[in-house]
Amino acid sequence: MKITRAELINAGYQIGDEIQTGGGRTTFKITDIEVDYVAIQPTVGKTPRRLDYDKLSVAVARFHEIDAKQIDNSLGRMLISAGLKDPTNETYLYGFARNYLARKKASKRASGRA
User: Fold this and answer.
1) Residue 37, SS3?
2) What CA–CA distance (Å, rounded) separates 77 from 94?
3) Which residue in 29, 35, 39, 30 sits closest to 6, CA to CA?
4) For the residues 75-99, what does the mean pLDDT come to?
5) What does the alpha-carbon distance between residue 101 and residue 83 come to, in Å, rounded to a whole number?
6) Do residues 68 and 22 touch, judged by C-beta distance below 8 A?
7) Is residue 114 over pLDDT 60?
8) How far are the Cα atoms of 7, 16, 36, 45, 73 from residue 80, in angstroms, in the given order?
9) Looking at residues 66-93, what average pLDDT do you find?
10) What is the mean pLDDT of residues 71-75?
11) What is the mean pLDDT of residues 98-107?
């Protein structure tokens, strides 16, 4: 499934949502939901980041293959093998993917489809 802006909005994401990073040590907030990416701001960092939907789609689709103890390496290799250059923000992508999958699962349970 290709993650899109509409998909995130339908899943209930909104500006200001706070999500745990992949390692769970810190969080980040959604600052904007753009056409091609989600803009985030780490709560302990000053540099805003972008999570491109193409990269987020790979993280969601192959989430079960990501080594949670080596997020940067395992997800980075997946992104490169998918033809996505400049693998960065892996821990943020992993955290967002984990949150997204949890929301989808909760939504299915709530609607009786699980």
Assistant:
1) strand
2) 13
3) 35
4) 91
5) 23
6) yes
7) no
8) 24, 30, 19, 26, 11
9) 91
10) 93
11) 91
* 3-state SS assignment for residue 6: helix
For residues 59 and 96, is the Cβ–Cβ distance under 8 A? yes
Residue of 56, 57, 78 lying closest to 67 (CA atoms): 78
Contacts of 88 (CB under 8 A, 6+ apart): none
| Whole-number Å distance between alpha carbons of 16 and 70 | 28
Tell me the pLDDT band of 57, cut-offs 50, 70 and 90: very high
Spatial CB neighbours of 4, under 8 Å, sequence gap ≥ 6: 53
At residue 97, does pLDDT exceed 90? yes
Cα 42 from Cα 40, distance rounded (Å): 7
pTM above 0.70, yes or no: yes
AA letter at 83: G
- Dist CA 78 CA 57 (whole Å): 11
